[in-house]
Design goal:
- The protein is an alpha+beta fold.
- Among the domains are: 53 residues, RNA-binding S4 domain (Structural Genomics Hypothetical 15.5 Kd Protein In mrcA-pckA Intergenic Region, Chain A, Roll); 162 residues, Pseudouridine synthase (2-Layer Sandwich), CATH 3.30.2350.
- The strands form 3 sheets. Strands 7, 8, 9, 10, 11, 12, 13, 14 and 15 form a 9-stranded mixed β-sheet that branches.
- Helix 1 packs across helix 2.
C-alpha cells in the first residue's frame, strides 16, 4: 500500500527551505534524509511525524508559514536564479531584506528587465508557470530595424522559432513608436517559452535592443523603481488569482473538449468502417452475361467472338 503524505519536494518548498527543483537536486546528491535514511524524489512524508534533515540538520517543518507574494522591478544585468556558479549578480541579491526565503516565478534573461514575481507559495508559482494555463505576459520591446507590415503580421499570427517544432500561439502586437532604424512594440504573449520574445523577433529578422516586461495577467509594474520590490496588495492578489482561476478553467475545458473530439472522431471512423461493410454485404452480384453478350462494366465482345467460342 502506498504511503500517505505529501511529496517531499512540496514540503520543502511550502516551508520555504528549498524550491522544488533545488530539492530534487539535493535529494539526488543524498543531502536529504527522512528518519535517518536517504530519501527518493517524490517520496511522501508526514511533516508532523517524520524527521526530515538537510545535510544532517533537522528541519522545522511544523511551523506555520506566511505566504509572501512580491513583485520586483528586475534591472538588466541580473540573472534569474538563487545562485550562480559564474559569480554573476542574482535577482535574490535584491531580495535579502525580505525576511524569508522566496523564489522567482518564471524568469527574465540577464539582459531583460521589468516585472518579476517572487513567492514561497509553490502552488501559486506552478499555476502561473504551467504552459497550459496561457496566462498573459506583456512586454515593451525596442527592435531594430524598423518593423514592416509583413513582420508585424507574422509576429501576431505565430512564427516557428528555432529549436521548437510548433509555431508560437497568436500574440497581440502593437506599434507604440516608430523612428528611423528602430520601432517600439508592445507584445502580449500567452505562453512562456525560453527567451520567447527575442526568438520570435529573430525569426522574422528583427533584433531586440531592449526588452521590459510590464505586466503579468492583470498585474502591472507601474512606477516601481528598478531594483526595488514590494508586496502585492490584497486587491492585486485577488485579481491575479481570478485570472489564474479563469486560465485553469479554460485549460480544463480545452482538455475535455479535445478528449470528446478525439472520441467522436474514433466513433465516426468505426461507423464509417461498419457502414462500408454493410453496404458491400447488401450488393447482389451482376447477372452472368448470356452467350457472349457484353459483360456489365466490361468491354463488348468482339464481333464473331461468341461464334468462335461455340
Amino acid at each position: 500500500m502506498e504511503k500517505s503524505g505529501i511529496r517531499i519536494q512540496k514540503v520543502l518548498s511550502d516551508n520555504g527551505i528549498l524550491s522544488r527543483r533545488k530539492a530534487e537536486e539535493a535529494i539526488a546528491k543524498g543531502r536529504i534524509t527522512v528518519n535517518g535514511h536517504p530519501c527518493q524524489i517524490g517520496q511522501k512524508v508526514n511533516p508532523k511525524k517524520d524527521i526530515v534533515a538537510l545535510d544532517g540538520q533537522n528541519l522545522p517543518l511544523n511551523q506555520r508559514k506566511n505566504n509572501l507574494y512580491i513583485m520586483l522591478n528586475k534591472p538588466r544585468g541580473y540573472v534569474t536564479t538563487t545562485s550562480d556558479e559564474l559569480g554573476r549578480r542574482c535577482v535574490t541579491d535584491l531580495m535579502k531584506d525580505v525576511g524569508a526565503k522566496v523564489y522567482p516565478v518564471g524568469r527574465l534573461d540577464r539582459n531583460s528587465e521589468g516585472l518579476l514575481l517572487f513567492t514561497n507559495d509553490g502552488n501559486f508559482a506552478n499555476t502561473i508557470m504551467h504552459p497550459s494555463n496561457h496566462i498573459s505576459k506583456t512586454y515593451r520591446a525596442t527592435v531594430r530595424p524598423e518593423i514592416s507590415e509583413e513582420q508585424l503580421i507574422k509576429l501576431s499570427t505565430g512564427v516557428l522559432i528555432e529549436g521548437d517544432d510548433k509555431p508560437t500561439l497568436p500574440a497581440s502586437v502593437h506599434v507604440l513608436a516608430k523612428e528611423t532604424g528602430r520601432t517600439v512594440l508592445q507584445i502580449t504573449i500567452f505562453e512562456g517559452r525560453n527567451r520567447q520574445i527575442r526568438r520570435m523577433c529573430e525569426a522574422v529578422g528583427l533584433e531586440v535592443a531592449r526588452l521590459k516586461r510590464v505586466s503579468v495577467g492583470p498585474l502591472k509594474l507601474g512606477m516601481l523603481k528598478p531594483g526595488s520590490w514590494r508586496e502585492l496588495t490584497p486587491g492585486e492578489l485577488t485579481g491575479l488569482r481570478g485570472s489564474m482561476q479563469k486560465a485553469e478553467n479554460r485549460a480544463a475545458h480545452e482538455k475535455s473538449f479535445g478528449r470528446r473530439k478525439a472520441a467522436a472522431g474514433e466513433s465516426g471512423s468505426r461507423g464509417r468502417a461498419g457502414g462500408g461493410s454493410a453496404q458491400g454485404a447488401g450488393r447482389t452480384k451482376p447477372d452472368k452475361p448470356r452467350d457472349g453478350g457484353p459483360k456489365q462494366g466490361g468491354r463488348p465482345a468482339a464481333r464473331g467472338e461468341s461464334n468462335r467460342k461455340k
